[in-house]
Model the fold of this input.
Amino acid sequence: MRIHLLTSRGLRAHSFTFPLRVFARGLKQAGIHVRLFYRHDAPRLTACDVLGVVSDYFGIRHLIARQHEVVQFLERSRERVGALLWFDVTAGTGTLFEPAFAVVDLYAKKQLLRDRTLYKTPYFEREYHLHYFYENYGEHLAALGEKARIVNHRGLEDWEIERFKVSWNLGLGDYNTFWGRGRGLRPYWPLARFARGASNPGNPDRSVDVSYRVATKYLFPAVPFHRLELRRLLKELDQQRDDTSIHSEGRLPYRAYKKELEQTSIAPSPFGWGEICWRDFEVFLSGALLLKPAMDHLETWPAYFEEDVTYVAHRWDFADFQAKIVQLLDDPARRRVIARAGYDRYRASLSAEEEFAHRLTDLIHESLRVRAC
Done:
């Protein structure tokens, strides 16, 4: 089975295609031969059984301003291959390229809303979780900036929702090996799955109780509002507890940031443009406990986020955020067990070659099945 993938060399697209490089041997053993292309006019692009198109090849601005050209390309390509997949690699459960549904056989996304009927409604700033903050904290957000336009111009119909499949999330990307100027080397580094992890995951004798080093400057207000609110609550908690070490101000060089995480007991990781963030996996790898807004609304693979098993959830309205931290600080045994489970599950996924081959095989076979119908 030959699958060709049209993709870009950008960081997000590289993160998505990275496991295809790392697990190349397992894919071949499963009878899947993957080849990456970086030009839509490459002569051999459609000489395959299945063609996959990674959304970042075009970029969000191109997808908005030049939809007709993208659709025409998809239509021409579809005629020449056995099946056509659209790999949406945007950050969240929303941000859909709706014109693709009428052309592609399968719309694969890194994470999806578990309740698919929610896709029948458009959201501000494209995302269900950001829309939640608009609905509940409108006055607070107005002080931070203007409301974004609706990019999801309409809700989806049932037949479009049926085209959805979960692909794989950014946890299988490479976050550990190269940062800063070294990012350009990532596509040529095949061994990042052997990245060094914490030597003492879940160890209760860490010098930093809570580490919260996150960006808060975003173009639209829903993301910074959420992140700034968590920082405010942490400052309040720090003032209430003299014996608690909370680091929530300032930026660190990446190596210093990683070192701090390896000495941290609890690391909150807020939502960003999407629910799943790079920080989640940095926290897992550091051996700290991941504290995150509840993730039970989404479906993703690998299934890293199991509440009270691999991470601890707090409410989206922040009502229990401080209480959850206090409970965890007062219960080092529970904290250690959950931090260790998150670390182990994440590390196991980095060598899950057979499982990844099954995931891609299922996507291929489903796209062929849809075409045959």
About this structure: The CA atoms of residues 75 and 300 lie 28 Å apart. The longest strand covers residues 83-88. The first helix runs from residue 11 to 22.
